[in-house]
């Protein structure tokens, strides 16, 4: 199954680039030399993405690594929208709505497409930079006084979300004056190098409330031992198949499902209740990937917070995440268990949000 997904991930973009390149070759009213240069740039920008995946960027000077990462990971989203646009235009041709002359040696069409892509992705970038504040109020007899939590997931700190961006996020969170901060994994994007060189752990130390977090799949991609050390240096309390009592709250953190040997939720609860009074506390489960939501309900968890999906990052990938997960974004409820699946504060790869949003969640639990 994993091999099939890898083949699909590699083959489908190659087919899409071939399709886009053919259209661009037909569309540009230029000599074959300039057309070739344009197509080489398109293919090359996509190939740069693999430099980040294969961690070749770790061997580059930092400015070059940042440039390669941002161009490579941005290109896949731009190519997606070019593919969809040309598909619509081809459909229009088949239905005799779009004239053939619009798609062959037409500088006006080429210029219009370029302006459309520029405008769309400028909007997507600005929309990503704006962080939505989602507010929730929950009533429970298990708490004796109001507790204010800031919850977030998927910071993806690395070559694109750098220390200056993290500094802004920390200021934003501190302005909420929370009692507790919870992070549902993927603090790290893929490489530890930018976090170490930019000393990003120092920014977490500025947070004015205790921080508890679980691991995400990207902590495993970056190297779990290094990720654990970063959490420790940052002052983040890592919950890895473990639980802790904080006032009226029982916080449970699952290891990421990337670790196929992680404990079941039932086993975690069983072991935790042997020495912690979880049954009398308002329980919050941090589980990065929102699979099998019924498990939290079955084990009488009061609230589950997850991330991972990014809600697809851009439309129409959000339709795919909606099809894969029982809930891929937002508030949800099963029985007496409340859920929130976050689209993430940060983002993987190209910094665009189209049809989705970047967010943090402010939850007040009161009696």
Written account of the structure:
This protein is of the alpha/beta class and 367 residues long. It folds into two domains: 2-127, no CATH class; 132-366, Purple Acid Phosphatase, chain A, domain 2 (4-Layer Sandwich), CATH 3.60.21.10. The chain is built from twelve helices and twelve strands. The protein has helices at 2-27, 32-53, 62-94, 107-129, 163-174, 193-197, 201-204, 217-222, 224-234, 265-273, 294-298, 317-324; strands at 131-139, 147-152, 180-184, 211-214, 236-238, 242-246, 249-253, 282-286, 303-306, 330-334, 337-341, 358-366. A six-stranded mixed sheet has the order 1-12-2-3-4-5. It is elongated, with a radius of gyration of 23 Å.
Furnish the topology, listing elements before pairings.
Layout: H1 2-27, H2 32-53, H3 62-94, H4 107-129, E1 131-139, E2 147-152, H5 163-174, E3 180-184, H6 193-197, H7 201-204, E4 211-214, H8 217-222, H9 224-234, E5 236-238, E6 242-246, E7 249-253, H10 265-273, E8 282-286, H11 294-298, E9 303-306, H12 317-324, E10 330-334, E11 337-341, E12 358-366
Parallel strand pairs: 1-12, 2-3, 3-4, 4-5, 7-8, 8-9, 9-11
Antiparallel strand pairs: 2-12, 6-7, 10-11
Helix pairs in contact: 1-2, 1-3, 2-3
What features would you highlight for this structure?
12 helices, six-stranded mixed sheet, Purple Acid Phosphatase, chain A, domain 2, 12 strands, 367 residues, 18% strand, 45% helix, alpha/beta
